[in-house]
Amino acid sequence: MVDLSDFIAHSPNVKRGNIPAERRRRLNDALERLNSGLYGSDTGQISGGGNDIPTTGLVSYWPLDDLEDGTATDYVGRNAGTVNGSVSTVTGKFDNAAAFDGGYIEVGTGETFGLSEFTVSAWARAEDEDASGLRTILARQDPTGKSYEKRTFVLWFDDDSGFFGAGVISARTAETDRDLRTVTTSDSYIDSEWHHVSVTAVADGELTLYVDGTEQTTESIDGPLYTGSGKTWIGQSPSQVRPLSGAVDDVRIYDRALSGSEITTLYDTTSISK
């Protein structure tokens, strides 16, 4: 059984004796499901539609099912998100999802990204509208640096080409040593359908992009990763110039690079017990 008492006691969003009845009921249900097998302490797996979803190295998980009280709960870490602007709840890939129309979810400056490697995974649905240019699914921005150098990690959708893409900053030893590495798909995904997008990054290794469980492209990374100390946002860039027109569901951050088979498992999952 998983002991969550320490998490509850220290969570910024759960205060003992100060939880609305309905929210407390849902929390108790979630904790019961957690202790009944959602997180296996021995296997490091999450139950999901007959598949064992990897949890080893999972540091933040936002299902985005419930945005009640303007909060996006982090079911694993302590990086609860705050909803800002026009963000609504719609039918998602799993239960509900967050739909963005100029708004965003800010998940603060928690240490979610590994310094030597990490994985970002999410389900995204882009809408075919009049928007153009790069639209942010998830981004982390450093308060220092210039122009693109501030975006130490970004996962995006390009409304012009329909491509998914990602970028990461590496080899930051001085202000002039920031090196942006990017990967993009070669196919268009402007189809109003849900697509699973994952990115793995390894220092002195590779940046790899996956869509719907299939590896799309890789780019070499020279030197260490630089993830910065800025905030992480979902649905918008921290500079507030690249809002997503679409929806995002089931966002995960790992402090390790998942294998190709683990990425496929995430994509093949048909349901998730939370």
UniProtKB/TrEMBL annotation:
<protein>
    <recommendedName>
        <fullName>LamG-like jellyroll fold domain-containing protein</fullName>
    </recommendedName>
</protein>
<keyword id="KW-0732">Signal</keyword>
<dbReference type="InterPro" id="IPR013320">
    <property type="entry name" value="ConA-like_dom_sf"/>
</dbReference>
<feature type="domain" description="LamG-like jellyroll fold">
    <location>
        <begin position="116"/>
        <end position="261"/>
    </location>
</feature>
<dbReference type="Pfam" id="PF13385">
    <property type="entry name" value="Laminin_G_3"/>
</dbReference>
<dbReference type="InterPro" id="IPR006558">
    <property type="entry name" value="LamG-like"/>
</dbReference>
<keyword id="KW-1015">Disulfide bond</keyword>
